[in-house]
Amino acid sequence: MKPESIKKYRPFPAVELPDRQWPNRTITNAPVWASVDLRDGNQALPVPMSVEEKLVLFDELVRIGFKQIEVGFPSAADTEFNFLRALVEQNRIPDDVTVQVLVQAREHLIRRTFESLEGTKRAIVHLYNSTSPLQRRVTFGDASKESIRDIAIAGAELIKELVPTLPDTEITLQYSPESFSDTEPEYALEVCNAVSAVWEPNEDKKIILNLPATVEWTTPNVHADQIEWFCRHVDNREFSIISLHTHNDRGTGTAATELGLLAGADRVEGTLFGNGERTGNLDIVTVALNMNSHGIDTGLDFSDLSATRQIYESVTRLNVPERHPYAGELVFTAFSGSHQDAIKKGFDRRVSDVAAAGGEEVQWGVPYLTIDPQDLGRSYEAIIRINSQSGKGGVAYVLDREHGYDLPKSMHPQVGKFVYDKADAAGRELGNDEIGELFFEQFVNVDAPMSLTGFELDHTNMKVGEVICHAAVELNGETIEGTGKGNGPINAFVHFLDGAGQKTFKVTDYRSQALRGGSDADSAAYVQIQDEESGQLLWGCGVDPSIEMAGLKALICAFNLKQEADS
Fold first, then answer.
1. 429 lies in which domain range?
2. Crossing angle for the helix pair 220-233 and 253-262, nearest 10 degrees?
3. DSSP states of 396-453 as a string?
4. Residues 261-319: tens digit of each pLDDT
5. Averaged over 413-437, what is the pLDDT?
6. Per-residue pLDDT tens for 447-476?
7. Residue 322 domain-assigned (yes or no)
8. Chain centroid to CA 226: how far?
């Protein structure tokens, strides 16, 4: 922003609250959740949802566990009215779910709203009118505080008068001083107290006072001060449910909500993935999963978050960004080599910790992952993805989890460098299948320039622990045959090569495993050799139904990689 433009802006006023208590509090239980996807979220869509699409989303919200769902603004349009009627007539509203309807404090709109509620068991009538000085001055032409307060009182009185017209419906009044976030605290309190006095809340008939940050004007700590100040001073606090409705204009809607809960709020309104006008509403998915990550049961089920995301994207025609908390395609993905290595170690450590606990669940603790992706229906396979920034541990992780190769740790640098050099040359991310193919082509059963054409073990007349091998190889088009004696197949084969004048290395490591993901009969072996002149270490991998043959193939593979390096 240009310096001269700064002059048109001013700091937001603070709330006088020197003894604020919210900074010393901790969130220990979940609030009442209210979804406003079907109203506030829907009105922000370039293409609003049809009745059929709304029904699909309503059913998903019920499945997730929302007990309060704002279904629309039935007095505003026939589509909104007809949607609520469809819910009632199709008996789609579970007995434990309360529908919420929004209405301005205008007589004909309130009466139409009550018509839409016929046949509902429980409903929240959400009454609102704008109270901020900006709205009073600009929208309502310098309307007085008294006139704005009287609009709210008249709306509450009419709702109270109409409640008996729906004797089979339990009605709760919710009032929102719209633009609470930039309304004078004392005046917002005055209007809310006036509405509460009309409703006369008690233990069996509470009032919801919703304090919307219709526009996010300030930092989350000031929002928390506003909420705490209001909670301290409001009449009938014990019979009032204080509700939050934050937006995200400054990018801190989640923080404002969490601090608002610390400040004393009881209820939260928001949408899935933060859909809403301008920069969006509060993302309830994020706040709920933040609580889950601290061991708090929220009553909301996001254990199949990908399915919820698919429904959301289908009916809203919006996309969840790749870096969106918890739900984004890449949020559980690491490209950085150091991150990949730490994540792999974390998963390996977790396996051992669970085993040590006798299979019982242990506290979550994997570097860079605040929550277990599997708890959200996300798979581990997508956590580590490979590009030119990736490291040895990430490639090893993919080979292990996706293809069943449990590489020795000292083999990771050799394989990792080769794969991410390929990614660098390609200038893009490599898929898991590509990584497997590259590994197999470069490091598994490599049979040139040397290939094994014959091998047989002979234990006859040998000391215990000794064997002799009869071997034949083809090297650079020449056949070499001979024998070698050793304490096992690999050692005997090395002595065969020594006798043929081909031993310019020593074997420094050997590992083997049953190959997961392949044939039940497949085994994988890993052999490391060291060049006697340069000291260079090279690994090769062999795969074969026979563990002995897998080891020999691994040795030959390492030999061939040495020949390649020498050339």
1. 337-443
2. 30
3. HHHHHHHH-----GGGHHHHHHHHHHHHHHHTSPBPHHHHHHHHHHHHBS--SSEEEE
4. 999 999 999 999 999 999 999 999 999 999 999 999 999 999 999 999 999 999 999 99
5. 86
6. 999 999 999 988 777 777 789 999 999 998
7. no
8. 30
**What's the angle, vertex CA 115, arms to CA 114 and CA 119, rounded to 5?**
90
The residue out of 425, 443, 461 marking a domain boundary is 443
Instruction: Identify the three-state secondary structure at position 353.
Output: helix
- Please, what is the Cα angle at 286 between 281 and 291, to 5 degrees? 130
Question: Which pair of structure tokens corresponds to residue 421?
Answer: 């050099």
pLDDT band at 169 (very low <50, low <70, confident <90, very high): very high
Please name the residue that has the structure tokens 């404090």: 105
pTM above 0.85, yes or no: no
The answer on pLDDT for 386 being more than 80 is no
161 — phi, psi (to 5°)? Answer: -70, -35
Peptide bond into 3 cis (omega under 30): no
User: What is the pLDDT at residue 392?
Assistant: 60
C-beta separation of 462 from 429 below 8 A: no
Residue 517 is predicted with a pLDDT of: 58
In a domain, 310, yes or no: yes
At 250 the pLDDT is 96
> What is the rounded distance in angstroms from the CA atom of residue 239 to the CA atom of residue 296?
25
Pair 428, 560 in one domain: no
Residue 515: per-residue pLDDT:
84
Side-chain-side CA neighbours of residue 102 (13 Å): 25
Report CA-CA distances (Å) from 61 to 58, 95, 166, 334, 552: 5, 14, 26, 31, 59
Same domain, 384 and 492: no
Determine the residue type at 277: E
pLDDT at residue 383 in the model: 59
483 touches 468 (CB < 8 A): yes
CATH of the domain at 388: 1.10.287.1400
The pLDDT tens digits for 144-167 are 999 999 999 999 999 999 999 999
Q: At what angle do helices 78-89 and 51-64 cross, to 10 degrees?
A: 50
Angle CA 440–445–447, to nearest 5: 120
> What rounded mean pLDDT belongs to the chain?
92
Q: 471: number of CA atoms within 13 Å, CB side?
A: 28
Query: Which residues lie across from 211 on neighbouring strands?
Result: 244
